[in-house]
Amino acid sequence: MPTTRKEFHLGRLISALLICASASLLAAGNPALALKSTRPSDIFAPREVRESLTAYHDPTSNFDFDYPRSWQVVADPDKDSLFKISGTTSEGKYGEVKLSVVSSFHDSLLAMNMMEHEMAEKLPQYQKLEERKVRFGSRYQYTGDESKLRFSMGDMSLSDRMIFFADSGSVYCCSFICSAGESSSMEPLFDKILSSLHRTQTAHSKPTLTPGGPSKQIWKLVNYTDKTGQVAIGYPDGWHFVNNDPGKELDIKFRGRNDKGFDSELYLSRIDRPPTMSLEQFADFYEQTYLKALANFKCETTHRTTFGISRNDGLVHYCTFSVEGHPGRQANAFFAEGKHYYCVALNTVAWTEPEARDLFERVLSTIKVSE
Fold first, then answer.
1. In contact, 251 and 265? CB cutoff 8 Å
2. What residues of the chain score a pLDDT lower than 70?
3. DSSP code of 161?
4. Cβ atoms of 87 and 104 closer than 8 Å
5. What is the second-level CATH architecture of the domain 221-369?
6. CATH H-level superfamily of 11-199
């Protein structure tokens, strides 16, 4: 059967390559394809994507992501495939998204190198175009190894963009396939899909282990909705709600502790949105007012991302400071909705960076604002 744009029939081929990759390449000795250690490139959610997107939840893996509304979930014979979604864009360009678990490996870079080795041997006109480390996901929670490839199948030249990453002890491969001639124009859409990827935590999720350390604290979040019904946020079960500040239009605060007994506060507040103030200026105003006077204050990282049930586009800052000789941390998320600027903040003292970031990212995923 000739290969058409509408159907590439790659499932069985990719599956077979993964199955035999381990034995053949290990026998060869050194794959000589190792990545150099570089700082990961962030994959942002581009604004120029015109496709109408909808959310997809895979009940087997609990992965969630956004994809074009007109695309369809299709059957895949690959036993390691979690899901495959394909279709054409509003401009008539075909694309395919697939997520698989790579059961043979526990290291994402090794899995990528072995996969490339097999593809180079078996696919006509195979060419590797680019390799890099990337950071992606709805809260930049995943770091992985990306490889951009080109090869032929029948009379078509195809582009395959593969991202290998590890999560909860397993390695996954997210693959994006399209016509080689349309790869540049399809890349923003694939970036949008990657930037929405996250994993829903359920009561049945297994706790993950920190390498060389104890298991992470498993947070159960409880939903809070303000009296207007416009703002909802999840907060740790067992933490206490503090009455709104009567001097502010909206000021929600929760207090609690981690499992080691160290205190923390979680805030959500908003102000009227001045027409001449940008989101960046609001973030700087907030930190200038509340944080920059603290001892050893430093904004460690900042990035723009999309988060929450309401898919808010905003800024996330991770800051550090000192309190009576103890390390303090504050994570801030700033975003605009309707006539207001919002800030969500988690303030901790003597918490480790991973546990503070983990809780804050979980809280961010629950935010829902509708004015």
1. no
2. 1-38, 104-105, 201-216, 243-250
3. E
4. no
5. 3-Layer(aba) Sandwich (3.40)
6. Mog1/PsbP, alpha/beta/alpha sandwich (3.40.1000.10)
